């Protein structure tokens, strides 16, 4: 560390990584002396500084904060107080810090001062909690290994933090508070005073006093997990009539169902129901303003006939979207499947346009043709002794008159040639999501006259012939394609489908040349997912930006192992955009870079946002003082 002074001889150095793996700084402070000397010289152009394996004290942080050119900073701190110095970094864009001191009276003030700088993307980690802010969204949670003892350390301090937000910070619109065990609403009650919040997600152990959330004047979406009565909350929300979507992980009792039904502004409800046979409360729900209902079913053997009968007997129901959902807390439990008596009630809900369900047998599924306005169908499963029950379902639907089905999602249900032959006859079908288990002959899907969206979750082999079939149709309407890629030939064939506007490439195996995508001159959105096996030079993707001049959104998502290093040539991309785009005629390209296991290599160059907006998403840093933070650039 004593040799750091020689870095002053590198006037163009813009990125610096210091790894103090052997604790050479333990008994002396050469880092502070080095920073002081560099500040005095004033000749450096550092824009990115990463300091691993050492916690900075107050003196070191104060000196570091004098380097005004810093745009990216990641480090450990001994104490919360040191955060105050970062407000001096006027050019800071990305900050990732781990504070080793436990939460205390200084925390809320210092965190607030930091978050007041709205242009900074911030991750603040500690043993007590982790806070991440990106734009107007804030998420607060705790690492699993620290959760059990958390409440006794932070229950008195979190409200100080939220009160500071409510008093001084007016930019938060979405707040997610989750994954902290044993936290009660009383511990975070000051959240109800942050009036800018539009979406709030809380995972709590106890909900007493939750009705205070109705005081939020702009709250549109509320997602809750916890134990306690919601009657008072629903009563107050009904008085305000602002909330549009409510989600609860538990079950509503009849009294709560009656009260939630009286919220005139509520359009979407997702929850379970403790009594599916209480016709009175369910009738109130059926006559409410609810248009989308997601029913969380904990017991797949419990009948929902009375539940559906309440809606089928209502002439005033507004229900358009019905989703029978497996309890997410028990993903290995069997899903609820609709039987004949339940399906008999569902087909009488004439307002229904969208249905997601599993079906007890083929006979139930074949009753789908009796839903007069069905436009969107999601099939979880069809229990049947036949090898391919979906073939019979599609045969029935294709003869439905009038034909109304526009969107079909088959989730994990695989289809092959026989099913595809019937799907090809659906003239109204615009969107298909499926798994393909039999490749030869499936190019018949290109005959779906009005198909605009094709999402392939998985396939057993190359789909080149399918894409070639779409490319050969001069009247193809296919605009959106999501698919796994296994070879360069697939990319070549996709590049010939000139109607494509949105491409999402993902999968298990990767080709090494994506440059052919530049032939899609009408492309508006591109997402490329690297699952860790990709072997492509990112520079080779740059021609896509030169020739696809209508691009509005691009996402690069990397799922590489921790040792891998991925570099996106942002400045080269920007140079291309400046040469080919006219900002007076089109909006800037929005580029999102997401890394699942690492923190991205942030760009530090000056960029005119009239041409390019770059945002970064990344996983958490490691939190131990003796563990490498994971920054290698």
TrEMBL record:
SUPFAM superfamilies: L domain-like (SSF52058). This is Uncharacterized protein LOC108041755. The gene is LOC108041755.
